[in-house]
TrEMBL record:
<dbReference type="Pfam" id="PF04883">
    <property type="entry name" value="HK97-gp10_like"/>
</dbReference>
<protein>
    <recommendedName>
        <fullName>HK97 gp10 family phage protein</fullName>
    </recommendedName>
</protein>
<dbReference type="InterPro" id="IPR010064">
    <property type="entry name" value="HK97-gp10_tail"/>
</dbReference>
């Protein structure tokens, strides 16, 4: 004699599983944008402003399709100077601004992603 098994909540569980890929994409994109914005802000706070417009040349780009974020200087007029400030030269001490900004915000990425994923899955902001 065959026994019937009742699976309460199976439909809800399957709907939640179907939402996972989109929630992951949304959480990733939100995290990338927040991280890039934070890194850019920290780099702008650190970069020397005594001469030049390097701080204005700092920018970030997020490619949500490939899941990549970049923060840096892409203006050809400022690019070489940006490297000299970050790394120094034989006649100029280094004044790192970009690498410390990356390092400052590196550890917050997993926490930010987890919180965003929970929100996008409907689990609140904890």
């Amino acid at each position: 004699m065959a026994r019937r098994i009742r699976l309460d909540g199976l439909r809800g569980a399957l709907r939640a599983i179907e939402r996972v890929p989109e929630a992951m994409r949304e959480a990733r994109n939100e995290t990338l944008n927040e991280w890039a914005d934070n890194v850019q802000g920290s780099a702008e706070d650190r970069v020397p402003r005594d001469k030049g417009n390097l701080w204005q040349a700092l920018d970030h780009r997020v490619n949500e399709h490939f899941g990549r974020a970049e923060v840096g200087v892409w203006d050809p007029a400022e690019l070489e100077y940006a490297m000299y400030v970050e790394k120094g030269t034989s006649s100029m001490d280094d004044q790192p601004y970009l690498v410390p900004a990356f390092n400052e915000h590196r550890r917050e990425v997993p926490r930010t992603y987890r919180a965003a994923f929970r929100r996008h899955m409907g689990g609140g902001a904890s």
